[in-house]
Amino acid sequence: MKRRISLQLLGLTSAIACASALSGCHSQLTPVAATGTLQTPGMAAPAPPAFIYKMKADYSQLVPVMMDKSRSRIVSYPAPSDLRRGNRLATPTPLDNGFWLDNRGIGETVAFLSYTYEEYAAMEAAPSMDELMKHIIERYPLTEFHYLTLPPAQRTAERLNEEIRTNGW
């Protein structure tokens, strides 16, 4: 009985100490609307995982869009200006064994349009949703994909090829 009371008292004391410490802490948190998470000012947001994939055919020069799980509607598509990183088009990076590294922010529900990066990037505005749907040429293009949680600085072709070899992909 004495031991049980001591453990309960220790737990209660710890809880009070933690509450006191937390109430004295006044770091400002800023909501990030896109994800609904909170971020401390001055801290970088965690990078999304790297996405590497294989395709049924070489669609590397074609514009990707994201579809819903049923592949019946487009849920995300780029503005023409989104297809450039500086002066370069953001086409995927070729890797070993037929893999590609995404440079656009795609995922497993990607589909490809018949527009090339170059054609689409030259447009004044994105086509209408009806036009985008008419230009889908492949709704299920991926044959294999992997998400890798490497820091952005380590997402080099050399490092990713090492991951491909190590994992036997």
Order of helices and strands: HEEEEEEEEEEHHEEH
The amount of beta strand, in percent, is: 25-35%
Number of helices: 4
What is the 3D shape?
globular
In terms of per-residue confidence, which ranges show pLDDT below 50 for 5 or more consecutive residues? 1-40
Distance between the termini: 59 Å
Using the CA coordinates, give the radius of gyration: 23 Å
Give a quick account of the main beta sheet: strands, pairing sense, barrel closure: 4 strands, antiparallel
Kindly report the average pLDDT value: 81
Q: What fraction, in percent, of the residue positions are helical?
A: 25-40%
Structural class: alpha+beta
Give a count of the beta strands, DSSP E runs of length 2 or more: 12
**In order across it, which strands form the biggest sheet?**
8-9-3-12
Describe the structure.
With 169 residues, the protein is of the alpha+beta class. It is built from four helices and twelve strands. It has helices at 2-23, 117-121, 129-134, 157-167; strands at 30-32, 37-39, 50-55, 62-67, 74-76, 84-85, 88-89, 93-94, 100-101, 110-116, 136-138, 142-148. The protein has a four-stranded antiparallel β-sheet with strand order 8-9-3-12, with no helix packed on it. Strands 5-4-10-11 form a four-stranded antiparallel β-sheet. The longest helix has 22 residues, at 2-23. The chain starts with a helix and ends with a helix.
